[in-house]
Design goal:
By secondary structure, this protein is mainly α. Helix content is about 60%, strand content about 0%.
Length: about 140
């Protein structure tokens, strides 16, 4: 190796060693600042939570117990994802349609065999009125 190249390499290494401590100190300062900012943010969040919880914890003159289901806010309905149109050949479309019709027919047949018990009388089939039980006369 030539002397000139050796000198250049030595200079680069010395320069890197001198810059190293500066860089390290700079990075440590950034780390401390980031940690302080994170702690400050956490303290703000904690204070906000306690402030929000205080009015709820204060007992009112009329205390009503609510079930947990009532306390939770109802979820907002999300927009439905648009259905992707399938690129089907007419033969495949007819095959799928036949399979679906067969499935629906089987489902209808199963429903006829076991009538569903529904609390909502509006959608259930009207029941035929049963004749009143015949009373037996005494001695006959």
């Amino acid at each position: 190796m030539k002397l000139k190249n050796l000198r250049k390499k030595i200079q680069r290494i010395e320069k890197r060693l001198q810059e190293g401590p500066k860089k390290l100190a700079k990075l440590k300062e950034k780390l401390k600042a980031a940690e302080a900012a994170k702690a400050l943010k956490a303290a703000r969040k904690s204070a906000a939570r306690t402030a929000a919880a205080r009015p709820a914890a204060k007992p009112s003159s009329r205390v009503e117990k609510k079930s947990p289901a009532q306390k939770a806010e109802p979820k907002k309905p999300r927009a439905r994802k648009a259905k992707r149109k399938l690129n089907l050949s007419p033969e495949r479309r007819a095959q799928l349609a036949g399979a679906m019709k067969a499935r629906w027919a089987a489902k209808r047949a199963a429903d006829v065999g076991t009538p569903s018990v529904s609390g909502d009388d509006q959608h259930s089939a009207p029941e035929s009125p049963q004749p009143p039980p015949e009373s037996k006369q005494d001695g006959v």
